[in-house]
């Protein structure tokens, strides 16, 4: 399983040039929530992991495991 810091780095890379607020709006979550995932201070629940992976066109395992 990847550390929170590794997951955060992956999420930041996947977001690319989109702003934090744009990506969060697309994902249907507060930008502060997405920021905490990217900073490695929180881990998303399984349903959010599915949504994030789908949004970026990746498998859950590619991002989180």
Commentary on this structure:
The protein is mainly α and 65 residues long. Helices cover 69% and strands 0% of the residues. The protein is built from five helices and no strands. It has helices at residues 4-15, 20-27, 31-39, 46-56, 60-64. The longest helix has 12 residues, at 4-15. It is globular. 15% of the residues are buried.
Mean pLDDT: 98
**Anisotropy-based shape:** globular
Strand content: under 5%
Distance between the termini: 4 Å
Jot down its keywords.
65 residues, mainly alpha
Write the layout of secondary structure elements.
Elements: H1 4-15, H2 20-27, H3 31-39, H4 46-56, H5 60-64
Helix pairs in contact: 1-3, 2-3
Short précis:
The protein is mostly helical. It has 5 helices and no strands. α1 (4-15) packs across α3 and α2 packs across α3 (31-39).
